[in-house]
Amino acid sequence: MKTGQIRNMAAIVTMGLILVLAAFSPVNAGQTGRLYVVGMGPAGPDLTAPRALKAIEKADVFLCSPGMPKKFNRFDEYIDPEKVAFNPWEHILGEKAGELKNTDPAAWRAGMEKQRNKVQTFVHELISKGKTVVMMDGGDPCIYGPSLHYLLEGFDPELFEVIPGMSALNAAGAALKTSLTPAGTRFVLLTAPRSLFGENMEKEDNILKDLSKYEATMVWYMSLSSMDKVIGRFRETYPPDLPIAIVYYAGYPEKQKVLRSRLDRILKDVREMDEKWLGLFIAGRCAE
């Protein structure tokens, strides 16, 4: 084989290697899109991590509830409504979905699975085209966040990133202006009525009796709508002077309110407040 032919063949092989390496290079890999599950904080961008805001800035498509862009508008921030595809939690969360979940759990589960398939198919298609999708979750997605709990089960974890936000727990602790772990506290328990007692408060195991043996701070999410039953369980075990606080609209500067009470009068105090949902229930010495 002549020298010129060898050089030409070497050039062809080299070019082939360059093309193969380019196909698997980070630059090419970077063309693949990504899903960001972003914790937006309780009230809007003032309690949202800068990293989350950067993801929002580069988003091609948003999945969020109808109220999320309005939160940004209050802070003179702007989310292009043309980039909002749909509400990913439709048929899963909300008043009508809640009623269906209670009256016909099977129908609700079927609707939830249908919505999950819709969301995952939609996201897969977009990120395969190199698009950046941002799913805007409230607070911290990892603390009772609907995105991870309902929508992304079975979704390839290599295709998405979670950016945590300020949780209601953080905001409530700041509102109380006290440590959630005062001296002698053994642990902080984070739960919800459905987690501890079952969806319909059907579990009869006296778990609170066991917990009452220890000095603890108990933080309850989603408890205002079932306060009568929750407090009834507490009264079976805890003393009447157990300190209880409820932080309403934790992290909302214009709405936040702290109610400090105790076990023997908390139901009366709660009934005087005009809010049935957005409140974090905290029991323990930190609530004094």
Q: What would you say this structure looks like, in words?
A:
- The chain folds into 2 domains: 30-166, Tetrapyrrole methylase, N-terminal domain (Cobalt-precorrin-4 Transmethylase, domain 1, 3-Layer(aba) Sandwich); 169-287, Methyltransferase, Cobalt-precorrin-4 Transmethylase, Domain 2 (2-Layer Sandwich), CATH 3.30.950.10.
- It is built from 12 helices and 10 strands.
- It has 288 residues and is of the alpha/beta class.
- The strands form 2 sheets. It has a 5-stranded parallel sheet with strand order 3-2-4-1-5, sandwiched between helices. Strands 6-7-10-8-9 form a 5-stranded mixed sheet.
- The chain has helices at 3-23, 26-29, 50-57, 68-73, 95-103, 105-128, 146-151, 168-176, 193-197, 207-211, 227-235, 266-271, and strands spanning 34-39, 61-63, 84-86, 132-137, 160-163, 187-191, 216-220, 243-248, 257-262, 279-283.
- Helix 5 packs across helix 6 (105-128).
- Strand 2, helix 4 and strand 3 (84-86) form a beta-alpha-beta unit.
